[in-house]
Each structure stands twice: as structure tokens, then as C-alpha cells.
Amino acid sequence: MGERNGSIKSFQDLDVYQKLKQLHLEIDELSLQFPKHELYELGSQMRRSSNSAPANLAETWNNKHTKIYLEGISRAIGEVQETEHHLDIARCKKYLDTESHSEFVTRYKECERMLWGLAKAVKFSDSSRLSPLTSHLSRSSAHA
After folding, report:
1. Long-range contacts of 138-143 (CB under 8 A, 24+ apart)
2. Contact at 8 Å (CB) between 23 and 107?
3. Percent of the chain scoring above 90 in pLDDT
4. Is the pLDDT of residue 16 over 70?
5. What is the mean pLDDT of the segment spanning 16-45?
């Protein structure tokens, strides 16, 4: 993605956004295979939380207030954790095998680490009195 060379112009350029969006699409497909009685219960909750994680990044991306952007990142982390919970319940109910569950959780944990890194980079850029929406993007250490 573009962030490694400092050319991020949109939330869509963030690696973590791309990964979360892909995970949502996979969760959506998975949840639609649940038993009919779960489509509007667990399936709906999984679809909502998995979509909310990247949506929170998109919603707060272009905000000039660092605090609001950090709140969006924090909400995205919460949605990732909620989705992990739903995945665990799906595994317990045998809608998801252990191997698939482990793969999803591993990928979500990676996204969570990336989100924490993004938050750290935003805080650093704010403390340096640089624009939170541009300066942290050019820092190769965030790789969010």
C-alpha cells in the first residue's frame, strides 16, 4: 500500500483499513452460512461489528481534531475485540471449526496491533505539533 512510501491520501490507503475490510467481507460470507435462527442474532452481530471496525477509521479519518481521530481508532479496536468474541461464540456453537477460528483471530490480532501502532503514531505527531492526518502517515514505523 501507499503508506510505506508516504503517499497516503485516504483512509482507503491504510493497510489496516484494507485488512479489516477484507475480514468483514469474509465474516459476512461466513455468517450467512449460519443456521437460519442465527442470521439475525449472532450473524447480524458479527456482520455489524466486523463492518464497524473499518467504518470507524473511515468516519474519523479527515477530522482535524486529533482527539476525535484517536476516538475513532479506539472504537475500531473495540469493534475488533467484539468481533473476536463473536467468532469465539461461533466456534463454541460449532458454526466455525477451530482452525478457521484460529486463522480469523490471528488476523484480527494483527489488525489490533496495527491500530494501536496507528494510535501511537497519531499521538506522537500531535505531540510534535504536526498535522495528525499527514505527519503520521509519512512515518514508516506506523505501517498501520
Report:
1. 138/6, 138/8, 140/4, 140/6, 141/117, 142/3, 142/117, 142/118, 143/3, 143/4, 143/15, 143/114, 143/117
2. yes
3. 68
4. yes
5. 96
H or E element at residue 26: helix 15-31
Residue 45, pLDDT > 60, answer yes
pLDDT in tens, 101-110: 999 999 999 9
- The CATH number for 7-138, chosen from 1.25.40.10, 1.20.1440.60, 3.40.50.300, 1.20.120.140, is 1.20.1440.60
Average pLDDT, the chain: 86
Cβ density class 95-134: b for 16+ within 10 Å, e for less: bbeeeebeebeeebeebbebbebbbebbebbbeeeeebbe
- Please count the other Cβ atoms lying within 10 Å of the Cβ belonging to residue 141: 10
Contact 137, 61 (CB under 8 A): no
CA angle 16, 62, 47 (to 5 degrees): 45
Cell numbers at 67, concatenated: 482527539
